[in-house]
Queue: 4 jobs
Job 1
Amino acid sequence: MMKALILLGHGFEEIEAVTPIDILRRAGIEVVTVSVEKDRLVTGGRGIPILADVLLSDGVGYPCDALILPGGPGTGALKVRDDIRALARAYMEGGKTVAAICAAPTILGAAGLLKGRRATSFPGSREEVEAEAETYSEERVVLDGELLTSRGAGTAEEFALGLVAKLLGFEAAEKVRSQIVARR
């Protein structure tokens, strides 16, 4: 069974976290929610608390097939953390999928992982991502090898379905799409 980690820090964008968790689980992918805080209870940017499965400090990481980074107001605190940048680097260098939405591609930029890549982000993060990426795109979801980036909360469904397609194939994504009556 495929397995993905999703990192949650205080101020994460709830839609950008819960939508991928839900859609990946519908596709049969095990999703482990990981608090990057000192406590498993993490509060999103809109005040919604989520109880994570594990703490990052417990040493989680491998063996997983994907790392997911939601954006939101808390992104700035994550991109300055060496442990989070190192985890993202380990996934990319290991040929694993790394998916970042909204402002979260700035974490990858800070880790040096956008060099030579095509990426997108939330419009407010454009300059920062554009400075690090080879090519900045305004497409809603951008796949470049093992890197998947997306624009923001309004693209969370497409982002999650793109991640399913990347991990399990187009047919698996289409099956989930039809179950949730997503637009094409």
Job 2
Amino acid sequence: MTLVVGDVVELELERPAHGGYCVGRVGGQVVFARHGVPGERARVEITEIGSGNRFVRGDVREVLLPSPDRIRPACPHAGPGKCGGCDWQHVTLVRQRAMKAEIIREQMLRIGHLDPQDPLLADVDVQACGDDRDGFGYRTRMDFVADARGRLGLRAARSHDIIALQQCPLAVNAINESEAWHQPWRAGATIRLAASRDGVTVAPDAADAPTVHEQVGDLTYEVAADGFWQVHRNAAKAFTELAHAMLQPRPGEFLLDLYGGVGLFACALAEHVGAGGRLMVVESDRRAGRLARRNLRRFANAEVIVERVDRWLRERMLSRVDLVIVDPPRAGAGKEVMAEVLRLRPRALLYVSCDPASLARDIAFARDLGYLPSRLQAIDAFPQTSHIESFALLIPSS
């Protein structure tokens, strides 16, 4: 069957797919449909066709047989042709998390080549991020773009169109109450609103963003307002607690933190390796590296290297480490980095991932190098969206 953009087809949505889609088939052609729920029958408008029919994407326009997990979105801007910030506001939070677990399992089987009988896959679940129970009011950082009239908005899914907003239900109250909503902005400008211990900081794209302070338990971190920091209000605490539980650092151990940002994990685990241990953070972003040095300055056994991880590993002088944290961008660490790290034979490597596909690929690389996943845990740090934060603990296979 040959489809063209604009066609409307009727199909059954079979399962969730990575990226916020559901998979359906029509005439033997696989269709990736947004705004559906697995198990539904729906009419889908074809919106995009890849070269050589490599993929077909569409939007659900009419639900013929709804899922019991379908709900009315809380935001009037959620849905086909509207704001692209949320993939799954039309799905109950319980089902969202079940779908994310299913996507992780599928990626681990298809790309990671794990055994279907591996108990690790049966135990995959997606936990709430701290005390988050409804999946709203959690984002402490929002990147907006100004429309032609200077209003803050977000882009429509897979589009340059800007949807003007008056607030966002995913944002914390402080952001929604910011005066930035009432200011006229230059058309096309990007504006970050960052809520921290210091209040709400407005960082337009034309200005150098200031440094803000983030509190995680007893630790205070300096972070660039326009720099990377976990957006969920509970994520930093939940992630560092999980890292400690999975790695179980011991006094005197050497911890290598790759793609370490401003030192979130290194600072949180410093007391557990103690004064007799060693901490090393490698981060390519110069400003983040400078801030990591400030955040770690009270630990005499800590060192921050500002360099690309792959380049530094090729030139490293290390002979061994005990523990490694790898927290790469969405593209993952890759084969070269995994090989260089695992040649150091750490007793455990914690891989923190925002993309289950690149995580699964790198787990496959690790297996070839003698390391297997012993624990896999996901945290729902991005409710109402298809984004997934996963933690995989890799240990020597023998």
Job 3
Amino acid sequence: MTRRNKPGRYAAIITRVNRTLTGWLNYYRYIRSDATLKKLDGWIRRKLRAIKLKQLKRNYTTAKFFIRHDVAEYQAWLGALSGVGYWRKSAMPESHQAMNLQWFKEQGLISLSRRWRDLKEIP
């Protein structure tokens, strides 16, 4: 579902991920702690960052994406021109600054731990 080479628009990927995560969380809604959900949230966001970086393809478009999302120009180019792969780039501070929690919220990604807390409030 989240393979980097799987074709599709980013919004469609997030929709598929949300549908699966919602179903999975409804099945496991009676867990006692959300510590595992927080780790899983972080891994999913990192995977989606790697997919977005792969879709940007070139260093120039990656740097412009970072700059457009409030990363300093020097840092943006430093992150874009690093010679590491997409998975390692997805853990860089530049990627985290450009694609932060607010950005994922705007893209429509649900948070497992937040959703779990909402489910727990229901009597």
Job 4
Amino acid sequence: WAVRHPLAGTAPAPITSPPYPFLAAEGDGLHKISVGPVHAGIIEPGHFRFSVNGETVVRLEERLGYAHKGIESLWVDTDIARAARLAARVSGDSTVAMSVAFARAVEAAFGVVAPANAQWQRALMAELERIANHLGDIGAVCNDASFSLMHAHCGVLREHVLRACQAAFGHRLMMDRVIPGGVATEFVGRGAGEIRRIIDEIKLHFPPLIELYDETPSLQDRTVGTGILSATLAAQYAAGGYIGRASGRTFDARRAFPHAAYDALEFDVPTRNGGDVNDRVWIRILEVNESVKIIDQILDRLPGLCDEPLTMDVAAAGNGFVREGMAVVEGFRGDIFAWVRIGESGRIDRCHLRDPSWFQWPLLEAVVEGNIVADFPLCNKSFNCSYSGHDG
């Protein structure tokens, strides 16, 4: 920040910045452990500074920003189509949710509503994205507890979900399939069959995996009581998604601000009150089951909408004056907020997409305190915050 503030018109002459001032931790026998920003796995960059007494973490401080790409500057004076592509790349694992948030904000700015066919397809893509990410996270948490069997089986199910997405929408992550005004590609005919097949596979193979998770004492010993987030902190930071719901928060944007087809779908919002790694895993488990129910309902409804249009021209409402719109969408991590201002020319003036990780990264520092160093990977993966979504 000492060099250049965001969206500055011109950059001042470079100056020498002082070293990053990590918070001090004082006491007998304390030592520091530095982790990152380069990690052993193929993951995004972030630095973690632990102050440790023996094996107990006294303080954790995160330093982020390594994935900063100036996304808000890139949005300035772009056309809506390019802006939508940028939105899809704010955080790649949430590409559908980010795209829906941006699209709905643009549609709100122009005062239009996407066709019903497109809205139901958006909901289908969003739930497939949720299932794929939750399956990956459940397996990864177990893997960090050295229970690789769950990781392998969840990985297989996740891969089959992604292949079904490829068959139905032409892209494994469904990137750029949601656009302002609707969806970009028609739902491939055999895609419905592929999605039904993977949903049936999840119904068959997921329950035994959950039983295995719940009845493995060595695994429960690592997850139960580890990394507890209090209900007070969850409420203070408005923690969304599985992090907030594992600590008693009931907020879900699909309920509070129904988007896509969620006002016509039946589903529950699971909550738990323990706030530990185990509860965050269980929220994911329960949400996978709810997403399966939602997808069943969508697949039953979509054939009756196949003759409706997939998209509409949002700019048909006309240009000539400044417009603003906003939207709140439930991604797999939690609620995503989008705000956009469109200039008189119809090009993007300013845009902001807020990833749920903005409110979740600080809470990770809090839940790790008092746990042992070896439990940090469990806590971190149970949060699974986005570096890219936060750094922007």
